Amino acid sequence: MIAPRHRVTHSAGLLVAIALTWNPATVAASALGNLRRGEAVEVSGEWNPAARVFVATRIEKLPGGRSPSARGAIESLDASTTRFSLFGRQVSVDEATTFETDSGKSEGRFADLMPGMRVDVSARTGDPGNWEARKIVWRGLKSSDRVKGVITDVGPPTDTVQTIQISGLDIRVTHDTDLKADYLMEELLGTLFSDEGDASLPHLQLWRQRLGGYARMTTYRDDGYSLSTASDDSLVGQPAVALQAAGHWGGTLQSLVDLRVGSEQSWDDRRFSVANARVEILQAYAILRSRRERGGALVVGKQRVRDEREWLFDEYLDAVRLYLTLTRPLVLEASYIPSVLPPPGESFATWDDLLLRARYIPDSRNEVNVYWLMRRDSSPRRRQPVYLGISGSGRPARWLRGWLEGALLRGEDKGRSQRAYALDLGTTFTTTGRVRPNLTMAYAVGSGEQPGDPYSQEFRQTGYEDNSGRFGGVSSFKYYGEVLDPELSNIQLMTAAAGIRFGYTASVDAVAHVYRQQRPDDGLRAALPLGGAPDGSSRDLGREIDFIFGVQNILRCASAAYGFGLFEPGRALEATDRVATRHRLSLRVGF
Q: What is the mean pLDDT of residues 337-344?
């Protein structure tokens, strides 16, 4: 147990560290003046036909050199010379040029091309101003324009604009052009202006600060939510408006301030009420990092701590986090998470956590890590868990995605030693066309208590988890069930899902769950407030089916999601014959 004086000391130390590094900044710095000849980059933006220049909105530095490539709309074609114009470059096609669809199928020829058609061209550089096409992808492409290659020329920067070239293609860089960190730092630190859902790119530049934010409304309509005979139908709305101030103050110092105004509105028994109206500082942190590929990054302050599937963390926490990159792509992480200024009423108000983690991140799609998490709890419960775990997620092939979460729970709970475990694994199979059906199979188990055992064998998640993620669609949802939403504690879950994704903007998912207790017990840890406890003899908890509909990038700034779930209780809950349903609708607009 941590003494109060000790808690005051380390809390004051954290606040001093925040004050010494305070400045609103962003992980995505301005690209203006920060690019060099010979660097490999990926440039996102749009072609300006009047000025005959590609206007960059974001530039990401890439490892190693590469031949030029571009994705955009054909301006004109010349059948007599088998050439077409793309972003002002003349692209020549010959017998060695291969044609493919987005799914990788070899198909097509020059005669299939036409003005206005979107293509993705991988090229060699030929005569000045000309590209020789090696491969042309001509079906199922994204609607965004992009250029990749090595910077061949860099013009002198002014206060507002600079011109660079990639193999003869002029690219305009402005103060609003974001320079994205390399993929490794991006995976570690995230993108500040896409903290929740689709990107809400900042639209207002104020000196070295950028302002952005979002407005969001989430509503829940519940029926039979407690599985009791009482009238428990309810409608809850959670409106929120957030403002984020970020900027870049040199090449090594960044930070973010994130404010949110929100409340909870409910309609119950024809009565309207508003509760929890508040203004929150969700995030206020600074980042100090090295410019070198082998170096480190220090993040200090209140920040969103989360993992890919939100299985360990998804919470805004006071933290000091250190990342060391000694041998890429291996990253060592040490994070101290004290309870300095927790929100009122939160269970983690008395927790202090230490996380040590080794993360192998070969690219932006794949990661495997091992971790050790220890907690000190100053509450009378004296719960001191220690987690030893492995976590992995990735996409080894375009048609295959998967994940693995495994953890051993040790330490003590009320002076009783713990010996528990949990496992969660699954895979998603998908096609690679523009319309992409997908199929997901998953299994998860958290160990349960064994009567008479001197050790506690009931697994408990960290208390920071949210258990939200995606399978093959564009919208996140509660992957253990929208209605029951259980903690992975003394429970087995078998999940099967099927969905279809329409390009990069919309998706539909149908998800089915079967729940069983690991060991019969009269308790159940779940978000669903049960009117009656399990009977303690049957392991059959029930079944649930969820439907998730999602749309993103509406007018490049908005997204919408709708979820419907129905939970049918099993034999362990046969004291009730009711089913519980939940409707969830979320609308979000970035600005």
A: 83
Per the CB < 8 A criterion, the answer to whether 385 and 413 are in contact is yes
Selection from 173, 171, 130, 134 nearest residue 150 by Cα:
171
- 8 Å CB contact between 406 and 471: no
Which residue matches tokens 């059959």? 540
Residues 6+ apart with CB under 8 A from 153: 37, 164, 165
Sign of the C-alpha dihedral computed for residues 124, 130, 132 and 137 taken in this order = positive
Q: In angstroms, rounded to a whole number, what is the distance separating the alpha carbons of residues 9 and 13?
A: 6
- For 437-488, the pLDDT digits (tens) are 999 999 999 999 988 788 899 999 999 999 999 999 999 999 999 999 999 9
Alpha-carbon distance of 493 to 543, in angstroms, equals 10
- How many other CB atoms are there within 10 angstroms of residue 202's CB atom? 24
Residue in the structure block whose two tokens are 């000309």: 130
pTM: 0.74
Mean pLDDT of 134-150: 90
Strand partners, 271: 268
- Looking at the chain, the domain(s) classified CATH 2.40.160.100 span 4-25+181-590
Closest CA to 505 of 198, 55, 56: 198
Nearest residue to 117 via CA among 143, 91, 155, 83? 143
3-state secondary structure at position 349: helix
Per-residue pLDDT, 478 = 97
- Asked if 518 and 491 count as a contact pair (C-beta separation under 8 A), the reply is yes
474 SS3 class? coil
Q: Once rounded to an integer, what is the mean pLDDT over residues 46-60?
A: 92
Among candidates 270, 279, 198, which has minimal Cα distance to 233?
A: 270
Q: Is the dihedral of CA 21, 22, 23, 27 positive or negative?
A: positive
**CATH number, domain 4-25+181-590, options 3.40.50.300, 2.40.10.500, 1.10.540.10, 2.40.160.100:** 2.40.160.100
Q: Taking residues 555-567, report their average pLDDT.
A: 91
Residue 304 CA to its chain's centroid (Å):
11
Burial class (CB in 10 A: 0-12, 13-18, 19+), 217: middle
For residue 223, what are its two tokens?
């029926």
Q: Can you say how many angstroms the Cα of residue 83 is from the centroid of all Cα atoms in its chain?
A: 41
Give the model's confidence band at 196: pLDDT under 50 very low, under 70 low, under 90 confident, else very high. very low
Least confident of 331-345, 364-378, 491-505: 331-345
| Residues 184, 29: Cα–Cα separation, whole Å | 16
Helices (H), 127-190: 183-189
CB 320 within 8 A of CB 334: no
Q: Residue 461 class from Cβ within 10 Å (0-12 exposed, 13-18 middle, 19+ buried)?
A: buried
Q: Which residues of 393-432 are buried (b: 16+ CB within 10 A; e: fewer)?
A: bbeeeeeebbbebebbbebebeeeebbbebbbebebebbe
Q: How far is CA 406 from CA 344, 384, 391, 573, in A?
A: 32, 19, 6, 29
What's the N-to-C CA distance of the chain in angstroms? 45
Q: What percent of the chain has pLDDT over 90?
A: 53
